[in-house]
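User: Show me a protein chain along with its predicted structure.
Assistant: Here is one chain, sequence first, then structure tokens.
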Amino acid sequence: MLRIGVDRRAIHWRDGTGVLRYRNTLSTALNALGATVEPLVDGNDRDARPVWADLPRIIGGRVPVERAGAAWYAPDLYRLAHRHFSLTGTIFDIVAADPPGVVHWSHPLPMQVVGAANLYTVHDLIPIETPELTGISRQRHARLLERLVEQAAHLVTVSETVRSRLCEHLRLAEDRVTCCYAAVEHCVPGPLPAGLEKGRYLLALGRVESRKNIARLILAHRASGVSLPLVVAGPEGHWASQAERRHTHALLAESQVVHLGWQPEETATALLAGARALLMPSLAEGFGLPVIEAMMCGVPAMGAATGPAAEIAADGALLVDPANVDAIARGIARLHGDDAFRRELVARGYARARMFGIESFAARLLRLYERFM
């Protein structure tokens, strides 16, 4: 029996981050393999204890977990591990009486299950390569990756671009890192928000922040001459500066822009399925999940012609220079008005999206896990 441990912190990320969605599709793929999924959970009881009560566990860096059905449990496990790493710079040990053969962590976490093959998914190197575009500390993230390399059985990435860069950055042999890509699950769309009609708007879906390039996108939309409104849907994210945030939010208030903020998953899916086109010329991405989702929905998509996003989209999306407002504007006009190109892009998108189905993802994972069982 294939037993795989996965992280499952007892928190609710309302904004539906890419890491959370990766974690969910990872569990779905493991179920498709017939594996026994053994989550490591931490409860939600930290407020019931004084801070000083945790110091021995934080400093000691080693805690036992107890079996709770299919899951493993220890109080406040993830916060303890992060505090231990911040204090000591070392990885937190989790001790289980009968650990699973493999533990697949959905992102770099400063913890390991003793006696298991610990695999860590690295989604991107944005905190190291473009730290101004994220709120994650460059120094801490680099130190964490270095420690994980020392103790991990293997590293996993969601693109070949990041795999190559990771090997170069950490001076790793090629066989220490495997690209398994990621999977996209279909979601049943809900109703569109009031005032929007199917096919009568363009969509930017994701966090409203510096790396999503929202200001340039709005300026390009204005310059494109397209009459359809630009809908921007997503929670507030990280800004490189307050000046950039103020500038972008001033643009979001324009009459041809509909700023919706965070939306539940069924509404976000409805927005994507109903859009004339998805526009995602991001400055940095690890995978670019909405672009693949658009392909699956038969919606033409625009992506960045640089980095992992270009690799993932390939010829299934219109790729543009994300730093060039004119190039983005030309792309918007073409996606809106060139019906023959739209049909061609939709056909290519469907073909490309098949690579990121659950079954394909599960097959790639199984080939990887078999090396460590």
